[in-house]
Structures are given as structure tokens and as C-alpha cells.
Write a structure and sequence with these properties.
The protein is of the alpha+beta class. Helix content is 31%, strand content 32%. The strands form five sheets. The protein has a six-stranded antiparallel β-barrel. A four-stranded antiparallel sheet has the order 8-7-5-10. The longest helix is centred in the middle third of the chain and has 44 residues.
Amino acid sequence: FEAGRNNGFQHSRMLHWAGSLLPRPIMPKPKTWLRLVLVVLALAALAYAAWRFTRPLPPAVELATIARGTVEATVVNTRAGTVKACRRARLAPVAGGQIVKLWVKESDRVKAGQPLLELWNRDLAAQRELATRQLATSEERRREACIMADNARRNAERTQQLAARGFVSPQRGEDDRAEARARQANCDALATDVKRAQAQIRVALAGLERTTLTAPFAGIVAKVTGEVGEFTTPSPPGIPTPPAVDLIDDTCLYVSAPMDEVDAPRLKPGQPARITFDALPGQVFPGHVRRIAPYVTEVEKQARTVDVEVDFDTPPKQILLVGYSADAEIVTERRDNVLRVPTQAIRQDGTVLVLGRDDRLETRSLKTGLANWAFTEVTGGLNAGERVLLSFDREDVQAGTQVTPNPPKDTKAAKP
């Protein structure tokens, strides 16, 4: 028994020693569990953030919101137009000669009839003086002859009375009447001589006028060619020469713009127009068509055009210089309060890309009406408030692509 107890004791000690060699399970404390959960959550958040910031983002695009507005059909000039004056005269004396007086200089304002320059004309002035003196002599001779004719008429009347009473012979009465008629004829002849002298004076004055250049209308002197002492001549046929004085009436201006010949049938006098200038950016001046050239201008190596003249509705307050380059946009048709889409949003096949669900682009076919370079009238295929893609320059933006609208550059079609 004692031996068995000892063996059992030894056996239990061996089992205890063997059990001490086995790994014992570690029972974590509550704080350790919380730390593990926080670490796992942090790692998951970091992984999600890394995935979100490294994944490719949808491309940002520019969109336009469909709304109602005005659509106009317009015609614009093919080449730059020009500001012109209603009246502009390139003046030169009728006759050539030496300039002796120059009364104006460039940029001077003149009145109608004001002399501008004068040529040497002493010979013509002498002829005028001679004609004036001849007129005075002719008038004195006529007055003398008329006095004599009046006296002869009274004398003939007295002789006729005496002949009727028998105091003088009838022949004497006939002679006095003949004398009176002759004197009257001489008076009438000298009256004609007076008219001839007056005509000579007018001829001399006309010659003087040929040597004096006057302003045909009020305006501003644009250019003066020549100085005192120089010679000037009128332009011979077929040989253009610079004018002596270039006079411009800058109170009345208009724009002459060349339009393509294919647009000419749509143009009519009185149609509204908008005028812009390169020298005045951002400013638009209203006007209307006043004249359409009745012929087509053919310029070598250029398109055939029709010159159209556009008047200003109200005179511009800004100072406009003759010769400014200008553009004229003529409105041939107008429709108000219609659904419209920016013309640049329409693709070549007549479709647009519309922003759909989940910000994905969808292809939409359109029915269109009136159109211009800015807007196109929509008669079917789109509704107000929908948004369409404006630009097609990116290959990664197609139908079905998820995109990111770009709010700062969003363009509404309702803007004029």
C-alpha cells in the first residue's frame, strides 16, 4: 500500500510536470480587445482612403442647361467692313496752276462755301476789271442813246400835231417819226451791248472761280496735298492723282460690309443689324440695312461678295474715325421664347450628349429649327432644365462615361 501510494504520488507529479510543458491559453484583458478593434478600423480606413484617392476620377466637363430664350438667324460679313462717311469729297481745282493762298490745314473744320485754296489768277482778275469797265461804258452809252430816243419821240409827236394843223409839211412829220424810231433802235442796241458786257463779267468771274477751291459742304479737312508756291493739277482721265483737299463730313457715318453672294437673297433694306468695331471691343451699336448693292463684286482669288450698307439707329457718342474696320451682323429672322441649345453642343450627326443618371452621358437625337453660330432652336428631343455637354475635344468622354460637372464653367442656355 505504501509502495502504491508512492507510485501514485510520483505519477501525479509526472503528470503535473508534463502539463507544465504544454502552452497555456492567454486570456486577453478587456482593454486589449478594444485596442485590436481600433487598429483594425484604422487599417480599414487607411485602405479605403488609399483606394479612393488613387482610383481614376470621372473627367470634369462643361455643361449647358437647356432653357428658353431668343434665337436669331443672322448673316455676317465675309471680310472686314469699313466705316465710311455719307459725304466725302476729294477736291481739286478745275484748272491747274500755282497755289498762292492756302486757307486751311489738316483737321480744320470748315463751313459750306468756305474757300480752301486759291491759284494764281491775276490775268483773270484783270479781265474781270476790264469787263467791269466795259459794262460801265456800255451803260452810259445806252443811257445817252435812250435819252436821245425819248427826245426824238416827243419831237415827232409835236411835229405830227403841227402837221395836222398845217403849220409844217407832212413830210417833216414823217422825217421826225423816222428819226424817233432810229433813236429807239439805237437805245435797244446799246441795251444789248450792256447785256454782252455783263456776260463778259460773268465769264471772268467763272474763270476766277475755277482758280478758287471752296468747300461743297461742312466737314473736316482730312488731308491737304500741296503747299503755297507748288503747282496742282486736276486728275487726267485714267491717271489718278492725289486730291488737293480731302474733305469728310463726319457727322453722318455708315458701315459698308461685304456679304457672301449666297446670303444676298435673304437680305432686305430695313432689316435690323448689330455693328461692332475692333477699336471698341465689347460695344455693340444697333443699326439697320439701308442699301444693298445691285451687283456682285468679283475680286481675284476671293469669294464673290455683295456690298451692304448699314446705318446707325442713333449716332454713336463715341468718336468714330472714317476707315475703322467694322463687322455687321444682320438679323434676317427672329424667334422669341423658344427652347434653345448652344450650337457648339450639337455634334456633326445632329445628336447631343445629355447628363443622365449617376452623372453618366447619354446620346440624344434632336429636332432643330432656326439656328445661328451661338444658339439653335430645339423643337424636339430635349426638355428645359436638362444639361448637355459643350465640348467634345476629349477622347475619354463618350456616351456612357461617368463625368463630373464643372460648376464654375457651367453655361446656361438662357443667357443672351
